[in-house]
Design goal:
7-stranded parallel β-sheet, single chain, Rossmann fold, 440 residues, 2 domains, globular
Length: 440
Amino acid sequence: MMNDGFRKVLLIAYYFPPMGLSGVQRTVKFAKFLPQYGWKPTVLTVEPTGYYAFDDTLLKEAEEAGVKIIRTHSYDANHLFKKRGIVKMPSERTRKILQFLGDLFFIPDTKIGWKITAVKAASGLLEQEQFDLIFATAPPQTDFLIGVALKRKFEIPLVVDYRDAWLEYPFKYFPTPLHRFWHKHLEKRVLKAADRVIVTHRRVKESILRRYPFVRYNEVIIISQGFDPEDFPSTVSERRIRPVRMKIAHAGTFYAERSPEVFLQALANVLRANPRIRGRIEINLIGNAREEDKRLVKRLDLQDAVNFLGYLPHRDCVKYLSESDLLWFVIDNDYQTPGKLYEYFGTRKPMIASLVEGYTKQLIHECGAALCVPLKDVAAHEQAILEQFNRFEHKKMERMPNAFSSKFNRLVLTGELAKQFESLMDYDRAGSITVKEQSA
């Protein structure tokens, strides 16, 4: 049903600005651009809480786009750090312990304490206003459970958005077979209730279709991560005619096997074997830094080559990427494609990609300006660094074709999402029949 020329969608997202990091960007950009396709979003999220990073610029962007935001209390560990605000990034050992304990005691995740207050707040809203659709994005998977509860109560179409896989999430623990069984049971409930499933990665779609035969191929839609052209500087400051240093940038957080160790070891080896290069390569690491990474830089004697810039507001980060000569990407699995990769595509800058075999590697190969190297191969990293430095010296660094990068424009991707929303609007409210049910 149209409202002042707009349909209305309720977006359920635990992670939303002013929280920072990559988990919020997809949702805030969808919310920003949906009105251009006739959809007015209202975001249901949590009250300000403790977190690893905050980005008020993203919140301002959502507010300036006219996005209505409703915040509710959540009974979870983040709330305990509300007064502290920014929480220090834990060591890898501590992260694993906390992850294991969270997965042991909370199903589907540590944010389950948000469900009761979120459903209550959303119910009050849905009783007062008429919405056409519910959109829930995860992780946390608690968001999906909230969406299912509202779908059943109000009989409104539900679209679920997998930013990451559920059962195959690389950093998820299943302490006992019972834990895995219950997660699978919950995912099955979600998929049976959902009218459309959105995923960011082909591998996730394949795993869903393989595990749940009742899900049809055309009910799972791939809408990748992307970049917002408005985040990029209109002009990139010119480097000197003969720049002295090749500037390498990496954006994102290191954890698990997604570590800078192999790349930095390779860089140290290159500088040791080629003294003339020392002082001519620098790497800027953008994002929350762990103490073990700083110790690694010191141990490898790279203090003059590696800069830790900390977390930067999103547009400042993109500006830094745009003004670099070379970008470095690292991923340790084939079920994720972090949002930063698509920001890299937006810059059209050349890359070194440290990764495993799979669809993500195939995608990066398509960009035509990347050297892909095995995740743990130090020698291959040394060769890639030297090859890119040689191109830098001779001013022969490649750029990604615009035809490739433009496919990941978030405005275009939001249009694809709006098409999926519209496909569910053949809806008989009196009979509570959705398109999916009619074709079943």
